[in-house]
Design a protein that fits this description.
By secondary structure, this protein is an all-beta fold. The chain has no helices and 21 strands.
Length: 297
């Protein structure tokens, strides 16, 4: 019989001269084996089996064999994000199942951990075991380590026209970097020292993460502006494309023609202080080149 099952009916064969006249034996054979008895051999005794006084009964015993109960354990496959702790490994018990309040001991095992690279890792039986009353068949599962989602947002920057681009910086978002990982490469922009005033995108460039991450990038803006000029606050800016308003220092309104980016022509203005007087244009002003400098006449 299989461990955990009910004891089958104990049967026998009658030999010798046999029963006569319609006689029958009474009672039943017996054994100490039961559904809770462990794997092994158990004697089948005569028990209460008997014949009438008209017979001389001799009994030859036998054994009841209890065999291991077939049990299957199937590991549950699961996924985890790179850098996160591995979840508890679980399983499903099948086959004939556990009986008599029995439980498995130990736990499944895997080499996957919070530092494991993206990929698949086998879930092994590990120390998971049943008693000798069971024959365990194990089916492995898989832990899939998935890429960690991060985001990079470029920080908007500004620089004077004709100068080198600054070092582009960014903020890191999403689930963030783990395990002391770092990004490689750098952000970039098509703007260079020859670029006119205006706005230029800050691109991802060579900035990259390892294959353990998925990187979403949000571009920034580099604004190229004119050179700063001392005393520029003495002039009032205007969004008009071809003029500016002088201050009380000059008490003049000077009309300026369109100035090419390079080289700018010299425009004239009257300055009571004897000049020079300067123009500090806004981004919408013409020309779109470097800050213009004017001299008085």
């Amino acid at each position: 019989m299989i461990y955990g099952n009910a004891v089958p009916d104990l049967t026998y064969a009658i030999g010798g001269a046999g029963l006569a006249n319609g006689d029958a034996l009474t009672g039943a054979l017996a054994t100490t084996a039961s559904s809770t008895t462990g794997v092994g051999l158990y004697g089948i005794t005569q028990g209460t089996l008997a014949a009438s006084a008209n017979y001389s009964l001799s009994y030859v015993g036998a054994n009841l064999s209890i065999t291991p109960r077939p049990l299957s354990v199937t590991a549950d496959s699961q996924s985890m994000i790179y850098g996160n702790a591995a979840s508890a490994l679980t399983y499903v018990v099948g086959g004939a199942g556990l009986v008599n309040g029995d439980t498995l001991t130990g736990a499944l095992a895997t080499s996957a951990s919070s530092t494991s690279d993206v990929g698949t890792y086998v879930i092994e039986q590990g120390a998971l075991a049943a008693s000798s009353n069971y024959a365990v068949g194990y089916r492995a599962g898989i832990v899939s380590v998935m890429p960690r989602a991060i985001s990079v947002a470029a920080i908007n920057q500004q620089r004077p026209v004709g100068t080198a681009n600054p070092v582009f910086t960014y903020t890191l978002g999403g689930l963030g970097l783990v395990n002391a990982d770092a990004l490689s490469g750098a952000l970039a922009s098509p703007a260079d020292t020859r670029s006119a005033m205006g706005q230029y995108p800050i691109l991802r460039g060579t900035l990259a993460a390892t294959a353990n991450y998925t990187l979403a990038y949000l571009p920034g803006v580099l604004t190229v502006v004119g050179d700063s000029q001392p005393g520029a606050a003495t002039f009032v800016e205007t969004t008009a494309p071809d003029e500016f308003i002088a201050t009380l220092d000059t008490e003049d309104l000077v009309s300026l023609l369109y100035q090419p980016v390079s080289p700018p022509a010299v425009a004239q203005c009257a300055a009571a202080s004897g000049g020079p007087c300067t123009l500090l244009p806004t981004a919408a002003n013409l020309p779109s080149g470097r800050w213009l400098s004017f001299r008085s006449q």
